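SAMPLE LOG
Freezer: B-3
Tube label: C17
Construct: single chain, 81 aa
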Amino acid sequence: MHPCAVPNIQVPLAQEGPDTMATIRASCYDCGDVELTTADVHVRVCTLDNQGTYSFRCPHCAMTVVKPAEARKDVIEEGAA
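STRUCTURE (predicted):
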């Protein structure tokens, strides 16, 4: 079993102010492309190996979708500096 298979804290992608609303396009397995806000998406990252997933509830069919999250190299490099 992967060491991060145990429940951990989920943190929303970002906090929006009252005048900002980012739109994210993701793909539901049944409905195809859907549009979400950052408040709709949760990211989980393992502290042991930095592998991550993101999840959201499809706004059309209400199914919870979980997919692997690919690390962005530029963000990782900035965090290491």
